[in-house]
Amino acid sequence: MKTVLLQGKRVTDRVFEPAQLKRLEDMGAELVIFREEDNASPEEAAELMRGAEVVITSWGCPKLEGAVLEAAPDLKAVLHAAGSVKHVVTGEVWERGIRVTSGAAVLSRGVAETALGLTIMSMKNFIGAAAAVKGSGWWNQRKDSVRDSIREMYGSTIGVIGGGHAGKHFLHLLKGFQLSALLTDPTYTREMAAEAGAELTGLEELLRRSDIVMVLAPEIPATYRMLGAENLALMKEGATLINLARGSLIDEDALVRELQSGRIQAILDVTVQEPPGAAHPFMTLPNVMLTGHIAGAVNNGLLAIGRFIVDEWGRLAAGEKMEGEIDPSRLDTLA
């Protein structure tokens, strides 16, 4: 099958190892690879797509619409080597009955692993402990406020907002600990949540009970500023809010006020404006850690997405269902 890689060389080299591209060819793919450093323009994409049966896209690729799709009347599938397909796949793709898959599940595994690491780091107050060691000398059994703030995973309550790919895998990772996991997600039943290892609750109850509030919900209209002043005020004293989703899910002005009170802490991988301006309170508040949008794949982890997309090509060629295939009827619940 003629298979076009629409992303530029810079992205292709970061996502696909040469061995994976060779595997595609060995399985029968007639590869057409865009060789320029940057991604193809719509005009270049239309030229590349002539006669294509499969197109592989990734970050920054042009939308699949108009002349780009018209150049490939036999297009069977879009394999998106990234997360959300909404910036690339248009209504025209779905109207033509073209199948679509993405690497969202693979990308989300990295997010879930980051979520676990940040959860443990927050519970243990590693940042405060490290600063205390440097400022006050080594300590072991010394009694002080830093030591009093250190907690273990045992017996804690972790609240997860969003049970998509990342949320579900995070809950799976939490099964190795003796703790209580809460989940809020309108697409889940109580039975589904229990199978994932969590108790299904409403958002307000989750905020009241959780030591860690992990935000992993999709950025859709229904989640815009879902965490505002009233909800944030429900969080327990000493709790930590961790946002690995998108900045738009939180009313940042309300969060700043809560943080300034000293009641809670926050770890933010994402913000509304990235990066926040130098004068933004997030940059100076002592109870905020900013991680610079690194929760998903950044370097070598990207190669797992490329491997998955090659596997998806193999499943497509064999007439099998692709593991990451997207049901268009669920688009309004997906990032």
Summarize it.
By secondary structure, this protein is α/β, with parallel strands linked by helices.
Write a concise keyword list for the protein shown above.
elongated; five-stranded parallel β-sheet; NAD(P)-bd_dom_sf; Rossmann fold; 335 residues; alpha/beta; NAD binding
Description of the structure:
InterPro entries: D-isomer_2-hydroxyacid_DH, D-isomer_DH_NAD-bd, NAD(P)-bd_dom_sf. GO terms for molecular function: glyoxylate reductase (NADPH) activity; hydroxypyruvate reductase [NAD(P)H] activity; NAD binding. This is Hydroxyacid dehydrogenase. The chain has 335 residues and is α/β, with parallel strands linked by helices. It has two domains: 2-102 and 299-333, NAD(P)-binding Rossmann-like Domain (Rossmann fold); 106-290, 3-Layer(aba) Sandwich (Rossmann fold). Helices cover 37% and strands 14% of the residues. It is built from 14 helices and twelve strands. It has helices at residues 9-15, 18-26, 42-48, 66-70, 91-95, 104-124, 126-136, 145-149, 165-174, 190-196, 203-209, 229-232, 252-261, 302-317; strands spanning 2-5, 30-33, 54-57, 77-80, 99-102, 157-161, 180-184, 199-200, 212-215, 240-243, 265-268, 288-290. Strands 8-7-6-9-10-11-12 form a seven-stranded parallel sheet, sandwiched between helices. Helix 13 links the parallel strand 10 and strand 11. 40% of the residues are buried.
